[in-house]
């Protein structure tokens, strides 16, 4: 690029096509061939084929525009290479929803809106009188205990509003889900419906009546129930078009109360809204002891109240900022490849969107940033910020009546408050999940900073399930054993708060138990719960044990991994009793060379391979001792390389060396090709063994 060369004005004026100088005449066969080619090129253009663009000399050598210069500078400073930028742009094209498909989805949404508003009303009955429900529809929640006060009648919704990522323009393919908030009228709700699951029972009955009438409409090819983010107290109704359009979109209906119906001060994390006398069937204690708080129960009510306000906030922040929307889409792909957004307690795309809004409010992200810049900024924030210690808040109010961050830290492991100051957006996120997100963010930032050629594929294109991300993996099955674990660990307040979900109630205690037992051997412990599948209108909702297996991943430290000794305190110290209680029968008094008498645990391990499997002994012993989970219910996957490495090692002794002549003497040297061949066989065997051991426990 640059100014045209001298003499360019004689060849053609600006705006005119450049004329080619006639070539010298050729003689013989070559001249005939060239003349025939010229005649072919000079002929009329063939219809349907692209023709070369004729540029003038001025257009060919014109200076780059400001937009082109800015794009070149941005590519050089932000994307490390033009290839990375092209890869990101192509990925965004693939995950965005095409305009033609949006038009078809919008048409379907308008029809859904009209159908929902035309559902007829029902007479008023008691909550426990559900005889008015048709025989082919079951209530999509577990009503335990069944007896509850209150009345119910169905009235058409006050309004139906599209909320979520589709309206914001951050919804990504291949699974297109559109969330619709169905606002229940005030007339069917009562002031004390926040107590003892009354609101959730009414919400489920409202959804069941909607499902019965919409299931008879030919507009829908599929009408099914599902849990909202894995929460068994909050089902949603899934609507899909009929025929070949069934995979076009899934509309999820979420019944919700009017935004200001429940008072937020009654839903603080320190308040109780599930009475022990009702839930446990016992009379209240006469000693005046306070009721245990129900922070998760209160949060689930607040989530339904704030659907529209969160939508308005995100719409204001994202608005027309295409870079922010692209950044959210890239982050969703990043989470999906690592399976961090699955089920109850996952780090969802909604949390990522709210995190973008928070960083915009703190001016760490600007609305003019590109999608790649937003991706880097969020990953950097996650890698360097521990929300389990120092929570963050979108609330800008200085009202002293609002709860403090410390109040939320006492009730939840991860704290991120919304703009109201009452709702913790990360209430369902466990500390283990957040630490896993932090770990993956650090790895991703190191990958981006390394400028590796395959960085894009490793970051956004390569799936990274738990079996690939952790050294050892264990599966707990059947999940019904966790109910006994809750009884052993005396988790009655947690069960009362979570509505009887014994898997979620036991999860925090189990991860804390294993982290304490593994100690310095452990770098990271994470868990994974498969999402609960959908179910038909005529079926009962899935039970907690129906969600398959609970999977725990262990990322181990090389330092101290092979130590066979757990050294405890001296026998005369007060901590010795706690050590004995924690380790049970494995703890014993031992005298050491320095003369000290200490509590200690010694693990049986003869070879180095057995020492690398000491975490297996630790896990099974602690689960059986403290949680009443026998080793027959724990399937441990680890140390598979140790069994496979023996045969290649023996083979290398035979064919891994070769005889050669050096200075007239025969010497034995390694045969590199044979050794590499052995390791290739080893790698194939390892992959097959992992897949075989994993498939055996697929549920």
TrEMBL record:
One of its GO terms (biological process) is tRNA export from nucleus. Signal peptide: none annotated. Pfam families: Nrap (PF03813), Nrap_D2 (PF17403), Nrap_D3 (PF17404). The keyword RNA-binding applies. Belongs to the NRAP family. Part of the small subunit (SSU) processome, first precursor of the small eukaryotic ribosomal subunit. During the assembly of the SSU processome in the nucleolus, many ribosome biogenesis factors, an RNA chaperone and ribosomal proteins associate with the nascent pre-rRNA and work in concert to generate RNA folding, modifications, rearrangements and cleavage as well as targeted degradation of pre-ribosomal RNA by the RNA exosome. This is Nucleolar protein 6. The lineage of its organism: Eukaryota, Metazoa, Chordata, Craniata, Vertebrata.
């Amino acid at each position: 690029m640059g100014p045209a060369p001298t003499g360019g004005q004689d060849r053609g004026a600006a705006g005119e096509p450049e004329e080619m100088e006639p070539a010298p005449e050729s003689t013989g066969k070559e001249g005939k061939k060239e003349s025939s080619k010229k005649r072919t090129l000079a002929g009329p253009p063939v219809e349907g084929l692209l023709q070369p663009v004729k540029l003038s000399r001025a257009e060919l050598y014109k200076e780059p525009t400001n937009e082109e210069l800015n794009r070149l500078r941005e590519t050089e400073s932000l994307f490390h290479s033009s290839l990375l930028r092209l890869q990101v742009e192509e990925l965004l094209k693939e995950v965005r929803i095409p305009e033609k498909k949006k038009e078809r989805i919008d048409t379907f949404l308008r029809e859904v809106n009209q159908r929902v508003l035309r559902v007829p009303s029902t007479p008023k009955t008691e909550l426990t009188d559900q005889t008015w429900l048709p025989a082919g529809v079951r209530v999509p929640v577990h009503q335990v205990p069944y007896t509850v006060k209150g009345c119910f009648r169905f009235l058409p919704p006050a309004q139906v509003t599209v909320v979520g990522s589709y309206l914001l323009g951050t919804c990504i393919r291949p699974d297109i889900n559109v969330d619709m908030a169905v606002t229940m009228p005030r007339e069917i709700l009562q002031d004390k419906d926040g107590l003892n699951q009354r609101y959730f029972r009414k919400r489920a009955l409202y959804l069941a009546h909607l499902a019965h009438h919409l299931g008879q409409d030919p507009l829908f090819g599929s009408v099914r129930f599902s849990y909202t983010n894995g929460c068994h107290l909050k089902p949603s109704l899934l609507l899909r078009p009929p025929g070949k359009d069934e995979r076009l979109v899934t509309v999820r209906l979420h019944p919700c109360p009017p935004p200001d119906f429940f008072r937020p001060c009654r839903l603080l994390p320190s308040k109780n809204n599930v009475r022990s006398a009702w839930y446990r069937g016992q009379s209240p204690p006469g000693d005046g002891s306070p009721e245990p708080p129900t922070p998760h129960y209160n949060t689930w009510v607040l989530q339904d109240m704030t659907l529209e306000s969160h939508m308005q906030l995100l719409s204001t922040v994202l608005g027309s900022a295409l870079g922010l929307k692209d950044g959210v889409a890239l982050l969703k792909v990043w989470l999906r490849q690592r399976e961090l957004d699955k089920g109850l307690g996952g780090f969802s795309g909604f949390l990522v969107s709210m995190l973008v809004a928070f960083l915009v409010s703190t001016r760490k992200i600007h609305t003019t940033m590109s999608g790649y810049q937003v991706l880097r900024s969020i990953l950097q924030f996650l890698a360097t910020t521990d929300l389990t210690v120092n929570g963050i808040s979108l609330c800008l109010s200085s009202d002293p009546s609002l709860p403090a961050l410390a109040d939320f830290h006492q009730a939840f492991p991860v704290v991120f408050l919304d703009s109201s100051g009452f709702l913790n957006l990360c209430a369902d996120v466990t500390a283990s999940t957040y630490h896993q997100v932090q770990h993956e963010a650090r790895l991703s930032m190191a990958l981006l900073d390394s400028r590796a050629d395959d960085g894009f594929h490793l970051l956004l294109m390569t799936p990274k399930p738990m079996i690939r991300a952790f050294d050892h993996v264990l599966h707990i099955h059947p999940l019904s054993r966790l109910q006994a674990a809750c009884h052993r660990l005396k988790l009655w307040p947690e069960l009362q708060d979570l509505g009887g979900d014994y898997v979620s109630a036991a999860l925090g205690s189990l991860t804390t138990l294993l982290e304490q037992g593994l100690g310095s051997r452990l770098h990271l412990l994470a868990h994974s719960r498969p999402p609960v599948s959908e179910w038909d209108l005529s079926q009962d909702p899935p039970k907690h044990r129906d969600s398959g297996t609970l999977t725990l991943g262990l990322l181990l430290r090389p330092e101290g991994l092979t130590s066979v000794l757990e050294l405890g305190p001296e026998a005369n110290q007060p901590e010795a009793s706690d050590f004995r209680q924690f380790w049970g029968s494995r703890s014993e008094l031992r005298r050491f060379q320095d003369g000290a008498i200490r509590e200690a645990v010694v693990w049986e391990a003869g070879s180095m391979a057995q020492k690398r499997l000491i975490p297996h002994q630790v896990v099974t012993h602690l689960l059986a001792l403290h949680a009443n989970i026998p080793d027959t219910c724990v399937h441990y996957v680890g140390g598979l390389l140790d069994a496979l490495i023996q045969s290649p090692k023996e083979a290398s002794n035979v064919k891994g060396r070769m005889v050669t002549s050096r200075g007239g003497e025969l010497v034995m040297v390694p045969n590199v090709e044979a050794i590499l061949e052995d390791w290739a066989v080893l790698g194939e065997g390892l992959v097959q063994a992992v897949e075989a051991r994993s498939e055996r426990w697929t549920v």
